[in-house]
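note to self: dont lose this again. the chain is below, predicted strucutre after it. 280 aa total, dont forget to put it in the shared folder this time
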Amino acid sequence: MVWSLLKATIFLGLVALLSLGAVYLLEHGESLRIVIGSVEVTVGPLAAVLAILAFVILVWVLLKVAGFLVALLRFVRGDETAISRFFGRNRQKRGLDALGDALIALAAGDPRRALVRAARAERLLGASGVTALIEAQAAEALGDRARAEAAYKALLGDDRTRVVAIRGLVRQKLAEGDEDTALRLAEKALELRADDAETQDLVLKLQIEREDWEGARRTLAAKLRAGLLPRDVYRRRDAVLCYAAARAALEAGSIEQARKLAAEANRLSPDFVPAAVLEA
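---
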């Protein structure tokens, strides 16, 4: 670790110094005079810059060769994985660079580049939840539902990514108009993570649209238990849901059940006039 840091520091320092020298020569049009013993060579600004670039490349190559020789020496001394680690570090660095590019591209709204860089990262680093997630979200942004759904399904097998995978599949089903499947998936996501406010709100919305008043009340109670809803707000909203359930019971001819639910709604929120009227 220390040796790698030292090499990087030396290399960057040389590059900075030589770059400043190259810029100076180009700006001032001065020649570079090199004296070695009794030999003197004068080169023009462009040739000097090219020579500096060649020197930088040479230093970089020498550092790589030195690293390989160190790995080879360790291998000869009995470290059987020294050489594979040397090449593996380079591969890993390229993979991490590609992964970083993919994340930046996705955040910048360039899903096509994100897909390309994520594919390269996967080739270099192997399949991972991060690359699959980038692929899923990039495909989703491009409107490629089949690819996005396949990528989200691939994430279901990992405990760390299962919730985000289910949420992604919920969005896919909603886009397809399959709200029944979306609701079942969202409820499954809540089983895995009960304090997910976004999923709770989605489940509540879908339950209300289906007039599943009991289910909606359970979801509302879950929001209260998760600390995502003040108790006074919970009581008012629960009273409204309870009143809606009472109206549904009344329309179904269950007068006694309707009165019971209306009484509960009135108890939860005494100033909720419709519940008091229905109870009477």
